[in-house]
Amino acid sequence: MSRPDLVNTFRERIAGGLISAPLAGTSDPPWYRLLAGEGINAFWTEMTTADGLLRGGRKTRAMLTQEPGRPTDPPRPLPRLYPDLGVPVVCQLFGHLPEAFAFAARFVELCGYDALDLNFGCPAQKVVRSGNGVALMRDPPLALEIASATLESTSLPVTAKLRLGFASDPRIFLRLAAELDGMGITALTLHPRTREDGFSGRSDWSAITELVGAVRCPVIGNGDVKAPEDARRMLESTGCHAVMVGRAFIREPWQARRMAQMLRGEEVRPEADWTGRVEWTRRHGLLLAGFYGEKRAMFKVRRFALHYLRGVEGAGELRRRMAVVADLAEFERLLDEALAL
Fold this sequence. Notes:
Blueprint: H1 4-14, E1 18-20, H2 29-35, E2 42-44, E3 48-49, H3 50-55, H4 58-64, E4 89-94, H5 98-111, E5 115-120, H6 125-129, H7 140-151, E6 158-165, H8 172-183, E7 187-194, H9 205-214, E8 219-222, H10 228-238, E9 242-245, H11 247-251, H12 255-263, H13 274-292, H14 294-308, H15 315-322, H16 328-338
Parallel strand pairs: 1-2, 1-9, 2-4, 3-4, 4-5, 5-6, 6-7, 7-8, 8-9
């Protein structure tokens, strides 16, 4: 079971703060270091398949031990991952086999993560079709068996991420959350949309308020936080313990510092100007290159550059060229030219 001292410390470290959401293709060591020092209280990894870990998939195991020199199959507990970040890193797991989650929980603890999260909310078709993610909210007994197997297999804090449920029953979250709370879950994150909603329309923050009043464990709010004012409004209007932000950071990672300042009651720094946007792009590209190597980094940085490099005349042509950037020298040259726009 989760050690009470670790649970209490984890809850204290995220209280009233800002969390970087699990983002497929984004939440990786360069991303953590891009936002390190920007006021983030915890990072969630992109979701990792528990079933793949149980099967011994080398690629899946390597995802969890990405730092150089760390074994992909640790025989004993490793030192804490990412100590330089100064904040917890939470490994998110998905799947549908309780025995896989039990194995994965032990593996994650060996790898040096600070906590782990159960994904009961992903609405992606390929995930749901396999009985994973939000599909588990249609099978509460299985979801609870997974949670129990996980809690029994690790001393780390265990959290879970939920949606409202399905259009046919958008109240599932309250029933499942009450059961998870009773089992000793460390915290619950709610993205208040149904599976059918995906990410369309407005998220229903009143459901976060309702969940806060229904459980004893901390509730993390998630959904439609795009600006500092949104972060403060979610925290104050719902009574949630912390605010999780995802898509807004992909578009404008500099919003992290602004949101954190707003939540702490500090003066909020201005939006990033054009020079700032260029330098955020440069920094992210260099972090990616240092971790993945030049070729893979240039492929990965393209999608971020298309978001970051907006706001001035001539930026469209720059983004067109950045969308096919192939090497670090060209990347640097394009950014140097961008400063003249």
